[in-house]
Specification:
Layout lengths: L5 E10 L2 E2 L1 H9 L6 E2 L10 E2 L7 H5 L1 H5 L3 H16 L12 E6 L5 H14 L8 H5 L3 H10 L5 E4 L5 H14 L5 E8 L4 H10 L28 E9 H6 L6 E10 L12 H13 L9 E3 L6 H14 L5 E3 L2 H4 L6 H15 L1 E2 L15 E2 L4 E2 L4 E8 L3 E8 L2
Parallel strand pairs: 5-6, 5-7, 10-11, 10-15, 11-13
Antiparallel strand pairs: 1-2, 1-8, 1-9, 3-4, 7-8, 9-16, 12-14, 15-16
Helix pairs in contact: 4-7, 8-14, 11-12
Length: 406
Amino acid sequence: MVCVDTAITGLGLVTPGGVGTEASWAAVRDGRPTAAIDPALAGIPVRLSCRVPGFDADALLGARRALRLDPFTRFALVAAREAIADAGLSPTTWDGARVGVVLGCADGGPGTVEAQHGELLRAGPSRVSPTLLPMQLPNMLAGQAAIEFGATGPNLVVATACASGATAIGTARDLLALDRCDVVLAGGSEAMITPLVMTGFARMGALSRREDDPATASRPFDAGRDGFVAGEGAGVVVLERTADARARGSRVRARVAGYGASADAHHMTSPDPEGRGVEAAVRAALADADAGPGDVQHINAHATSTPLNDLAEGQVISRVFAGAPLVTGTKGVTGHLLGAAGAVEAVLTVLAMERGLIPPTASLETLDPRLDIKVATTATSAKVELALSHSFGFGGQNAVLAFTGP
């Protein structure tokens, strides 16, 4: 496949930090944790979550349209609208046949499934909504975006668990390189904070139980970390060939310089303790970017705040990067957005480069003594010419994106 210089021309975010890129960036930049006790999770083993604040679906999407969309789709459409506007594009004027959509999620719409199953048990089959399947199917994430924006090019949803959003961006870049599209909306969205899903995570032992101090429950790389806090939201970018973007006078916010993917082939939930799959993805992204470890100034780590994952990732970073670049774990603010995490963190990485400011790792008090890495604990000014964003998922699926400036 011919390599193509790929530009990011638009950014869109809906996160626990707020609705929109600026609100989300401000929360991350300031290191303001969003974890809290969630009343909707009353009665289950762990009640912590990171919810999107102030998301009025009726106002943002229209009440009739919002009624037919699961929250994971609502988040994605709002983030995509922002990204398209940021790119200076308009669905009313573009050639929809040359516009693709590649979005990622881990689970589709479990909230819709749980609610409708409750109706089935309570009142019988006649009370189950005919929109159940169209609302909850994972592919509807991209399908609804195509309907909203008149994008009739390639349309797909990828699922690599918590690497899904990053995998989507890497796949979208490949579509541009293959000349299947001229514009691609890429990213991820997730809305999995439901009683059943959170009970499942709790039963696995994956969640933080720090309910006595919710705000500091998500603490990447900290010696006292005990699990992740689930978040929700979406991140979407607009990708174009750099030459096309410049030809139409668009602002290039960053370039996707490299992408690496791998599988641990180790265990369905635990990472390879040696981090071999992670290291392979990191090295593949660097090679794709025609760069070496010494060229990287910043890493937005996957850093879920779980004991095994943070340890394995941190050891890979210290092994690959001598004189390690400055690392941040933005999940200290946002929690773990699961299938949306890779896309949201890709956007945050681009903003860190663009603004010359590496955000802090919130709630990190004592770095795990087994790790030899440099972690930002305060907002740090830095000139970043090459940055990596790490994303890893259950099943050992790894995706690493490399970004350079415009």
